[in-house]
Specification:
234 residues; globular; 10 helices; four-stranded mixed β-sheet; Glutathione S-transferase Yfyf (Class Pi), Chain A, domain 2; alpha+beta; Glutaredoxin
Length: 234
């Protein structure tokens, strides 16, 4: 059994997609980030960066004590190695998947995240910041579109690279993007959306928390006003 500390954000969805695809037994432990539950000592013990998702695997392959992990990319690699699925074992295939996984965790996710913040959540609309991140998100969509030309999936076969990227494309409208401008991304997106495991993963998210358009002032402070003092409870 795997405990998944989770909230239905793009990074959270990555892990439920994998778990549903692989058919692993797991239990969702909700972490309501708008209420500050990510700062609870028990959660910080397994996710010192006070971010979800995080997992606790109570049945690691070495038969030893439970293994906890934070960071969605690391979790995907761990689960792929645990199950022997969605990450090739050959040198070149593994390298392709990992480079596109890191492209997402180092590029698409952070840039789209800043895009979301300045377009949708920032109390002050700063045109330079909005243009900067909308344009960079657009560039990254272009990179992905080029990569998907003539391919069904990002690394040819379905992999953790697809699971990582898809949830960050789902809110494309909120990112100021038009999928019609990226026909290869659109084809791949529709294929991903139709996968039964992806449908189940998103249904799990809806059962935990319905999407919302805004936050209270207190929730904004919790989500966007974090400093080192947050970890000390100060």
């Amino acid at each position: 059994m795997i405990d998944l500390h989770y909230w239905p954000t793009p990074n959270g969805h990555k892990i439920t997609i994998f778990l549903e695809e692989a058919g692993l037994a797991y239990k969702i432990v909700p972490v309501d980030i708008s209420k500050g539950e990510q700062f609870a000592p028990a959660f910080l013990a397994i996710s010192p960066n006070n971010r979800m998702p995080a997992i606790v695997d109570h049945a690691p392959v070495d038969g030893g004590a439970a293994v906890s992990l934070f960071e969605s990319g690391a979790i995907l690699v761990y689960l792929a190695e645990k199950t022997g699925r969605f990450l090739p074992s050959d040198l070149r295939g593994r390298a392709r998947v990992l480079e596109w996984l890191f492209w997402q965790v180092g590029g698409l996710g952070p840039m789209a995240g800043q895009n979301h913040h300045f377009r949708n959540y920032a109390p002050e609309k700063i045109p330079y910041a909005i243009d900067r991140y909308v344009n960079e998100t657009n560039r990254l969509y272009g990179v992905l579109d080029k990569r998907l030309a003539g391919r069904d999936y990002i690394a040819d076969d379905y992999s953790i690279a697809d699971m990582a990227a898809y949830p960050w494309i789902v809110p494309y409208e909120r990112q100021g993007q038009n999928l019609d401008d990226f026909p290869n991304v659109k084809r791949w997106f529709e294929t991903m959306r139709a996968r039964p495991a992806v449908e189940r993963a998103y249904a799990k998210g809806e059962a935990v928390s319905r999407p919302r358009d805004g936050f209270t002032e207190e929730e904004r402070k919790i989500l966007f006003g974090q400093t080192a003092a947050s970890l000390r409870g100060g």
